[in-house]
Each structure stands twice: as C-alpha cells, then as structure tokens.
User: Which sequence fits this backbone?
C-alpha cells in the first residue's frame, strides 16, 4: 500500500539489514503528482517505463560463496506506484547475506516483490560484470545543446514559458543535454542527469530548450515526475506526431533511475553514460 513520502526512509537514520527483507520496500502513489499535472491513470498521454540499474547487487550461493552482478529493473510508467529509492537500496542490500539456489530464483523473487509494490509487473534482468564491460559506455544521440552561447536567468521553478517554437515549420529532430539537474523533494540533495528529446512536430528552438532545462536546477521533484513534466510541456508546445523524452540520471547509492516517456510503445536501449 502506498504511503506519504514523509513516512519513507528518505532523510532518516537507517539500520541496514543484510538478510532478505521485502517489507523494506516503500511505495509512493503516482496519482497525486498525476493530478497536479492534470493527468489520470486511465488517460495517460504516454507509454514508457522507469529503468533502474543497480551496481551493488550481491547474494550468496548455497555454498556460501558471494556473487556480484548488475541488475536492471523496468517499472511500467503507468504503474500505480513508484518505489522510493532509499527503500529500494535497503531492500537490495538485504540480499547480501541471503542464499539463492541460482540466478533464476533471484530474478523470480525480485520480480515478485517489486511487482507487488509497484502494482504492475516489473521486469528484472541480471548481468555479469563481463556482460557490462562488453556493453561499454554509450553517447547520447542527437544534437547536444550544451555549447550554445545563451544568457540564462536563475529560476526557482520550471519555466515552460521559456520554450519557443516555429509553428510555420514542421520538422523531425533529436536534442540532448547533460545539464539537467533537479533536487530531491525530501532531502534536497542534487539529482544530476542527461536528457534526450526526440520529436516530430513544430520546430523547437534549441536555445530555448536549453534555458528551459536549466530552469529545473532548483526544482524539487522525483526523477520520474520531472520527466513527465518536461514531456507534457513539450507536447503542449509542439503538437507533435511523435515525442520521446528520456532522462538518464547519475547513480546514488549504487542505483541510477532512467525515466522514459513516449507517445509510442516500446522501450529504449539502456546504454550507460560516462557519468553513470
């Protein structure tokens, strides 16, 4: 059952438990933020998922020998709940001294526990370190706007009014930036990220897009909700035939969160960036 974020373990002194404890997982309902954004669960304007990567995943074999690996978790964007990040870390740490017969048993356990909290099926993949090394680092697609020479005023909240488009010109474009930053709404800690916007619609002025992204710099919201706000602002402005917003945030405590929202079904490649 979801609870108020104030009751979550975020910002509180916590005792780490190293044996399997699914009760540590903490659900936060998406509905209040959807309502704030003018959305309802039955009429979401996007498809997508929140893709989490865990770089501190470990458990024990029946012999007592530990295993280390990297986990990938895909939480549907239309699930009733998000999983609060600190509770997720505490839960994953509870596997450290827990025995699983094999990787398949661990995946089934993770999918069962995470799906129960999210309210929809969560897909889990586990990669060996060799797998991750072979995948290497990826580059953001599209035209990076970070080197544009523009003047930006400091903003306390996101400013969709900064966005500019040409309604006489329809185009298909892909823009990217590494300058996304927001703050945790509970602890105030900075959340650093990179973002890709791909669209087919009215031409978006790249400089205005950069200024708009920077207006998130002092904004307090969870990763998922920042991406949804960006998606909605661009959708309203560009009247797009197709729109995708994909953010890749820098990890904290071994976890990174990568929300993906798109007008079309499907999920992106989960390519790790240099800061991740």
Assistant:
């Amino acid at each position: 059952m979801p609870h108020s974020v104030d009751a979550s373990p975020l910002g509180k002194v916590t005792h780490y438990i190293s044996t399997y404890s699914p009760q540590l997982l903490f659900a936060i309902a998406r509905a209040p933020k959807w309502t704030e954004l003018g959305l309802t669960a039955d009429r979401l304007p996007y498809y997508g998922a929140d893709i989490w990567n865990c770089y501190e995943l470990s458990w024990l074999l029946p012999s007592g020998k530990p295993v280390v690996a990297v986990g990938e978790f895909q939480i549907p964007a239309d699930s009733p709940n998000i999983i609060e990040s600190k509770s997720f870390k505490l839960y994953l740490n509870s596997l450290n001294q827990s025995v699983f017969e094999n990787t398949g048993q661990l995946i089934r356990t993770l999918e069962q526990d995470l799906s129960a909290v999210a309210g929809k099926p969560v897909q889990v993949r586990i990669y060996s370190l060799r797998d991750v090394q072979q995948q290497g680092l990826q580059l953001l697609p599209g035209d990076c706007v970070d080197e544009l020479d523009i003047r930006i005023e400091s903003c306390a909240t996101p400013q969709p009014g900064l966005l500019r488009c040409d309604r006489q010109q329809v185009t298909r474009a892909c823009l990217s930036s590494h300058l996304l930053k927001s703050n945790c709404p509970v602890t105030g800690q900075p959340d650093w990220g990179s973002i890709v916007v791909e669209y087919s619609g009215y031409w978006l002025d790249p400089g205005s897009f950069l200024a708009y992204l920077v207006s998130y710099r002092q904004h307090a919201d969870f990763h998922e909700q920042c991406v949804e706000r960006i998606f909605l602002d661009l959708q309203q402005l560009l009247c797009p035939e197709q729109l995708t917003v994909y953010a890749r945030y820098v990890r904290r405590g071994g976890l990174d969160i990568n929300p993906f929202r798109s007008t079309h079904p499907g999920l992106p490649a989960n390519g790790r960036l240099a800061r991740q």
In short: The chain has a mean pLDDT of 95. The chain is about 25% helix and 30% strand.
